[in-house]
Amino acid sequence: GGDPSQKIDYVFKVVLIGDSAVGKSQILARFARNEFSLDSKATIGVEFQTRTMVIQHKSVKAQIWDTAGQERYRAVTSAYYRGAVGAMLVYDITKRQTFDHIPRWLEELRNHADKNIVIILIGNKTDLEDERAVSTEDAKEFAQKEGLFFLETSALQATNVDDAFLTVLTEIFNIVN
Ligand code: GDP
Ligand code: MG
């Protein structure tokens, strides 16, 4: 949020996780700055970005953490997860392997994050429908089985990006209220 005088009622830390190149940094760029870049480089030195939203008349500052290219299995440190109340678990709908790795990321969350963390599964790059390798039904079924929220997004087209964050933030908000 730009206005420094704005009263903040809540700050929620949310972490982005998932394989490299699924679109985590672009989802964050879209959400925090309404920007998108087709040849994105890892942002060096920036740990998180924020955006303040109003939920049920309260101002909620989302502090969204992005891995700076540490997506190798077990390379993300526990400091990254510390204090996180939400997690966005991202795969690329055109790369089956990135979906097949989701159980590993869930295990990482179970090992490092708070057990009550709110998790949303996100299938990104829906603008590439012709290259789809993971069906919506498969992902939905998996999410249901694991008790995760689920949405498909396109950071490029700005489809469902705000909705994905709002889903997580509203659920966290309801838990703390
Ligand atoms: P990260 O490694 O998970 O942070 O992935 P990036 O955000 O760096 O994105 C990896 C590549 O995928 C970049 O070339 C992005 O421009 C591209 N990308 C990210 N989101 C989308 C999307 O929704 N649609 C398309 N077509 N490309 C995307
Ligand atoms: Mg990135």
UniProtKB/TrEMBL annotation:
A molecular function GO annotation: GTP binding
Entry membrane topology: Lipid-anchor
Chief place where the protein resides: membrane
Keywords associated with the record: GTP-binding, Lipoprotein, Membrane, Nucleotide-binding, Prenylation
GO cellular component, one term: endomembrane system
Compartment(s): Endomembrane system
The family this protein is said to belong to: Belongs to the small GTPase superfamily. Rab family.
Name of the protein in question: Ras-related protein Rab11A
Organism: Erythroxylum novogranatense
Shown residues in whole-protein numbering: 6 to 182 of 224
